[in-house]
Amino acid sequence: MSSNNSGTARPVNTRKLVLLALLTAIVVVLQFLGAFIKFGPFSITLVLMPIVVGSAMIGVYAGGWLGLVFGFAVLISGDASAFLAINPIGTVIVVLAKGALAGLAAGSIYRVIAGKNKTVAAIFSAAICPIVNTGVFILGCFMFFLTTIAEWGRNAGYSNATAYIFFGMITFNFVVEFALNLVLTPVIVRIIQYGKDRRLT
User: What does each C-alpha distance from 66 to 11, 25, 61, 63, 97 come to in angstroms?
Assistant: First the structure.
């Protein structure tokens, strides 16, 4: 009996590992492509959808892994170079934490809601991912870069660092990322359903 169980479990695990590897590669490629799409001082994050898909289809920790890969890709792509020049340690902490926590949050929300409604779970998962990603970035700005950001804000015509963070740095990018994730939610749901049909979830 136990040998049959192990025999049926291995193909599913292999498929999940292959899917995780594929999504990992997609995250890296999308981050390097997205680094060239800038609105204001920062680029638009294109990698949140594969993070949501991975966290839903494979599990919470897969979302955390994909978010962590996203963070490493941000550091390698040069997208965080302005912050690395100010505080390298703070930058690494913030960039890795915001990606990993966004993935973990997306997977956790999906797991809590999916038992009742997978479509609603996908919507909430897609929504929470950019919220956590941006929220941790904001906290990091206040913890590690406030003095420099205040100077950037004065040079850009803002009265203080808080105004510059919210209205000069993140607002447009966050709205685009949030809207993009929600618009692509039907695609996410179909991918998850496909995974369910193939016994990946």
Answer: 22, 10, 9, 5, 12
Number of domain units in the chain: 1
Q: Which domain holds residue 125?
A: 2-197
Please give the model's pTM, rounded to 2 decimal places: 0.83
**What distance lies between CA 181 and its chain's CA centroid?**
10
Q: What is the CATH number for 119?
A: 1.10.1760.20
Per-residue pLDDT of the chain (201 residues; tens, 9 = 90+): 444 554 444 555 888 888 899 999 999 988 887 655 555 556 667 788 889 889 888 999 999 999 999 999 999 988 888 899 999 999 999 999 999 999 999 999 999 998 898 889 988 998 999 999 999 999 999 999 999 999 999 998 898 999 999 988 888 778 888 888 878 777 777 777 766 656 555
- Cα(108)–Cα(22) distance, integer angstroms: 21
Closest CA to 45 of 23, 65, 56, 30: 30
